[in-house]
Request: fold
Amino acid sequence: MKEIFVWNRFVRIWHWLLVMNIFILLTSGVLEKHKLHAVFGILTVTLAFLRLYHGFFGKGYSLFSSFIKSPKQVVDYTMNLLKKKEENYIGHNPLAGYVMTVIIFAIIITGFVGMSVFIIDNELFASINSLENIDKINKTLSKIHSAISFIISGSILLHIAGVIRHIYVKKENIIKSMINGKKIIQQKEEI
Reply:
C-alpha cells in the first residue's frame, strides 16, 4: 500500500464549502428564508465558477481532463461496477466525474434561474415587472428552479452512495482523503 497526495487544498476547501452551502440552501429554501437563500445561492454559484476555472487551469486530479471520460467509458465502468469488477481510480472514477460535472453545471443553471425569480419577486427592476405575463413567467422559472434543485439533490445522493460504498465495500476512507488530501492505494506487485 502507498499513500499519495490526490486532492489539493483548493479542492478540499471548495468541497466542504459546497457541502455547507448546499445544506444552508436546502434549509433556507424549505423554511422560505428567501434573502438568506439568495445570498448563499450567489455564494454557491461563485463556488461553481471557481471550480470550473480550477477544472481547466488547476493541477493533477482536479483537472476535468483527468476525470471526464467518454460516455462509453462511463457505461463500461458502470456495467463493471454492477458486476463488482470495476477498475480502481486514484481521483474520480468515470461515473463520479459525470456526477460532479452535473452538480457543477446544475448549480450554475439553477442559480441564474433562482436569481431571476428573486429579482422578479422583489421587483428590483420595474421594467421587468411591467412585462405582460410576468407572474406566469415567474411561476415557470420557480418550477424550473425547483426541478433543477431536485437534480442536484439526486446527484448529491449518488455521490453520498458512492462515498458509502467506498468506505464499507472497498474499505477506502475517502472522507479522510477529502480532509487531508491523501489517498491510500493498493500497489500492484511487480514481477
